Amino acid sequence: MRDATEALIVIDLQKDFCPGGALAVAGGDQIVPGINVLATEFQTIALTQDWHPANHLSFAANHAGAAEYSETRMPYGPQTLWPVHCVQGTPGAGFHEGFDTRPAQVILRKGFRPEIDSYSAFFENDRVTGTGLEGWLRARDVTGLTLAGLATDFCVAFSALDARALGFDVTVRLDLSRGIDLGGSLASMTERMRAAGVRLEG
Ligand code: VGL
Ligand code: ZN
Fold first, then answer.
1. Count of structural domains, the chain
2. Which residue, 1, 14, 52, 181, could crosslink 186 as a Cys pair with Cβ 3.0–4.6 Å?
3. Which tens digit of pLDDT belongs to each residue from 65-101?
4. Among the atoms of ligand 1, which is closest to the Cα of residue 12?
5. Going along 69-193, which residue ranges are E strands?
6. Where are the beta strands (DSSP E) in 32-166?
7. What is the ipTM, given to two decimal places?
8. Of 94, 66, 64, 65, the residue nearest 80 (C-alpha)
9. Which domain holds residue 92?
10. What would the pLDDT profile of 160-183 be if each residue is shown by its tens digit?
11. Alpha carbon 51 to its chain's center
12. Is residue 76 part of a domain?
């Protein structure tokens, strides 16, 4: 068992990001058993849950004529337009049924403001609105983070980069994460994590 100052953060292990879901990540369900096993090593565990209102501006459907996976500009910068996914209270927003959420102490919901997307567990896509997770971790004297989940090149990578910028020691379990890979995003975000000093394992 690891010290309580080392936390596991499982990112968005939700039905909509698994095969059959609205924004399915290839092989997203394959990581579930390994994450359940990994969680038995940790005393401090946080989960994130993508949690959008139906009118969320990250949905292509809420932009007349916009194609899914195209890019638009938001006041805070470029934003990919996604299929409708993880709508609050829908089955697809639920955690994968094989994922044992019982050991987690906190479930952090993100992406609930209609006009701001939130990839990172720490800051929304405007890069200034905090989610509160940093304070939760600091209050527990957490200094080391292990991240796994979906998707490697979006929510996992943004969380890892922010965590490094906040001074945490960060490991990403690539073997227990899966990527969307939009226009080479898996390679570019993996390189950004490596350059930022994120330990990439698996
Ligand atoms: C995610 C796209 C949109 C993720 C969430 O969890 O990586 N990606 N919303
Ligand atoms: Zn989302």
1. 1
2. 181
3. 999 999 999 999 999 999 999 999 999 999 999 999 9
4. 6
5. 71-74, 77-80, 106-110, 144-150, 169-178
6. 44-50, 71-74, 77-80, 106-110, 144-150
7. 0.99
8. 66
9. 6-51+88-200
10. 999 999 999 999 999 999 999 999
11. 11
12. no
